Amino acid sequence: MLTQLKVLQYTIVDEMELEFTPGLSIISGETGAGKSVLIDALNLTLGGRTDLKAIRQKADRTEVFAHFDCQKNAKVVAWLTARDLDPSEGCLLRRTVSKEGRSRAYINGLPCTAQDLKSLGQLLVNIHGQHEHQHLLQKETQRELLDQYGALTNLSDEVDSIYQQWHTSQDQLTRLRSNADEQQAKADLLNYQLKEIHGLNLAKGEMEQLESEHKRINQLDQLQSACQEVLQKLSENEQFNGLANAYQSLALLEPHAADHPPLASAKELIAQAGILLEESISEISHFQETLNISPEEVQTIEDRLTACMVIAQKHRVKANQLHALQHTLAEELNQIGSLEERLALLEAEVSDHHDHYMSRAKQL
Q: Of 161, 234, 298, 328, which sits most exposed with the smallest number of CB within 10 A?
């Protein structure tokens, strides 16, 4: 039922809004009062042809709104639902035409084509006029009249609903089948990627452990080098080392220390320094022995890290994200793996709808 009609800048109308209540509504007036203007404006919202002459003089565009209560019209509800247009608040049609000739159409606030308006409008309104006999020649009208005569309107609506369900399922099945090759190619790629990652046999948290161990080994290597360099400077360098120089200095001062107290004091300090150097060399040597770095262990860790880095770079993720990536890829593959199951379910659904349709259609 038409509940509201709003017309803006249409022919002789500046702005007009009409609300309709259930029952018979009559628009009357003298010739030229504008009765047909309302019908023409309504027809515009129903997908009728646009006419730039209909735009009010000096206006930039004309705009018409028509609101319908469609809850009792099963065909309209089905039409809107099939296109994801919520019918719960009724059906709002809107049509605008600019003076440049641009036409815009909307159903429940969403853009649509004029053909959509026309298709929906035929389910909403019957406009009877002098060419009514042409409407009677349409097969759809003849079928509706026949159904009404035979009291079969409810059964006809049921058959139409079942038909829509059948073809909706058939369309879904067709799309799913057309995507089967693409999905299979994606599954092959996922299998290949998972095989690569599975080949690493990477445990959760292993990358963090490897990186920590690699860092520890690098630190041990730096300590080893530092200790070796200190020992070299203190005792192992044949040309120059601190300990040998200290004892050579003691030997040089020995003949003169007894006669010169300052030299005796210096000799004593150098002797103490020599002892401290020996203790330092001993401490460093013992510490160096505790820095046990196995070349085989180092090589194993580096090889493992390199293998993980190569695969991670190939998949454009960080190495410590490989374990999570493996889970994500497995989930995607699992979803694709259910393709055959979805196909089987849809095929069964299409078959059921077909059989149901044929049964009720034969009854009709």
A: 328
